Amino acid sequence: MLRMLLAGVLMVCLDGAARAERPTERYASLQLLVARQALEQARALRQSDTALAARFARGAQLDAHLAHRMTDSRPLQQEAAGVADESARLARSLEQDGS
């Protein structure tokens, strides 16, 4: 009887742990904000310093990918994917202009 009770308690605990929020979840939106800010900085530098702008764009892309991996939220993942794609396009454009 005690074994069955302990097994039941263990199952409830494991079920709750499986649904628990990932430790990184609370920081994903902040990481996405960092990505957006880097993208904006890249846009602002586009005319004056293409090499630095390209570095900011690549940084924005990495930050957006990181934000995507930090969350299970589909809307946040979609936003992060959009920022990553936009950053990659800008970086490619800047790198082509600079070569």
Give a verbal description of the structure.
With 99 residues, the protein is an all-alpha fold. It has one domain (24-98). The chain is 85% helix and 0% strand. The chain is built from four helices and no strands. Helix 3 (50-70) packs antiparallel against helix 4 (74-98). The longest helix is centred in the last third of the chain and has 25 residues, at 74-98. The radius of gyration is 21 Å and the shape is elongated. The chain starts with a helix and ends with a helix.
Which helices and strands occur, and which strands form pairs?
Elements: H1 2-18, H2 25-45, H3 50-70, H4 74-98
Number of helices: 4
Span of the ends, CA to CA: 75 Å
H-E order: HHHH
From the alpha carbons, calculate the radius of gyration and give it in angstroms: 21 Å
Summarize the biggest pleated sheet. none
| Unreliable segments of 5+ consecutive residues | none
Global shape = elongated
Number of domains: 1
Average pLDDT confidence is 86
The helix fraction, in percent, is: over 70%
| Total count of strands | 0
